[in-house]
Amino acid sequence: MSDLHAPTAPAGTAGAGGHPGDARRVLLDVQDLAVSFGGIKAVAGLSFSVHEGEIVSVIGPNGAGKTSAFNCISGFYRPNAGSVVFDGESVTRKKPSHITKRGMARTFQNVRLFRDMSVLENVKTGMHSHLGQNVFDAMLHTPRYTRSERQCTEDARGWLDFVGFRADDELLVTQLPYGEQRRVEIARALATQPKLLLLDEPGAGLNHSEKNELMELIRKIRDLGVSIVLIEHDMGLVMEISERVVVLNYGKEIADGTPAEVKANPVVIAAYLGEEEDE
Ligand SMILES: Nc1ncnc2c1ncn2[C@@H]1O[C@H](COP(=O)(O)OP(=O)(O)OP(=O)(O)O)[C@@H](O)[C@H]1O
C-alpha cells in the first residue's frame, strides 16, 4: 500500500482559533469565513483551526452552517468573505481538485460514489490526482500504464482492507449495504493520500457496533498522521473520539474546547435547548 506522509515542516505555535497551549503545527486555519444564500447567512464569520494529528468535531443544531462551512473549506462553495489557509497555502476559493491535490480529502453527508462503477473502480478514482499516467499511456496501454494500473489496483485493495471493507470489491457500489458504502467512500478519500480528512456525518445511518468500528477506524487514520475534522450529531461518538469540539450556531462558533469544556458550557446548552424547543 502507498505510504501516507504527514507534513514534515517544523512545528510552529497554535494559530488564532486554536486551543491555547497546543504547540502542534496548525494545518488548517479558517478565519472569518462567510457564505450567504439569498438572505440566509449560512456561515457568518467562522474562525477555527486544526493542528497536525488532531481529531476535531464540529457540532451544532440543524441548519447551524456545518456542511456549508465544509463546502467552503473544501472548495465546493465560494465563500463571500474570510480565508482558508491549508498547510501554509491560501486555498480560499480554489477548486476542489486543487485542494484535494494539496492534501485535503472529504466525504459527504449523503454518500457520493460513482453508482455505475465497482467498489474497486471507485477507490481507484481517488488515486488519479497523483498518478504519473497520461492520456497516451492509457490509449496505447504502454508498459508504464500497465505497471501503474497494477500498482493502483493493489493500493486500492490495500485501502479497502485498511477501512475494514469485507464484501466483494467487484460489486457495483449500489449493491452494498449503506455501512459498506460509507467505508468505500472513506477508502476513496484515503487513496488521495490526504493530510486532512473531513468527514460529514460519518456515523449517520450506522448501528451501534458499526459506530464503534467507525471510531476505531478514525483513530487508525489519525495514527497514520492524518488530521480529522468530523461533523457529527451523535454526541456519544463526538465526546468519545474528539480531542477538541467546535460548536456552531447561526454560522458562527459559539464554543471551542475539550469535550468536557463544551459539554459544561452554558451557551452550548442553551443553543441545544433552543433546538429542542423549536421541534
Ligand atoms: N446550496 C444552498 N442553497 C440555499 N441554502 C442553503 C444551501 N446550503 C445550505 N443552505 C442553508 O444554509 C443554512 C445552513 O445549512 P447547513 O446545511 O450548512 O447546516 P448544517 O449545520 O450542516 O445542518 P444539518 O445539521 O441539518 O446538516 C440552512 O438554512 C440551509 O438551508
TrEMBL record:
Going by the entry's taxonomy, the superkingdom of the source organism is recorded as Bacteria
One biological process term from GO is: D-alanine transmembrane transport
* This protein's GO CC annotations: plasma membrane
Q: Could you give a GO molecular-function term held by this entry? A: L-phenylalanine transmembrane transporter activity
**Segments forming domain ABC transporter:** 28-275
State the InterPro entries in the record.
AAA+_ATPase, ABC_AA/LPS_Transport, ABC_transporter-like_ATP-bd, BCA_ABC_TP_C, P-loop_NTPase
Q: Where is this region: Disordered?
A: 1-20
- Coiled-coil spans are none
Locate the compositionally biased regions of type Low complexity.
Answer: 1-13
Q: Which terms are listed as keywords in the entry?
A: ATP-binding, Nucleotide-binding, Transport
Q: Which SMART domains match?
A: AAA
The name of this protein is Branched-chain amino acid transport system ATP-binding protein
Q: What organism does the UniProt record list as the source?
A: Leucobacter aridicollis
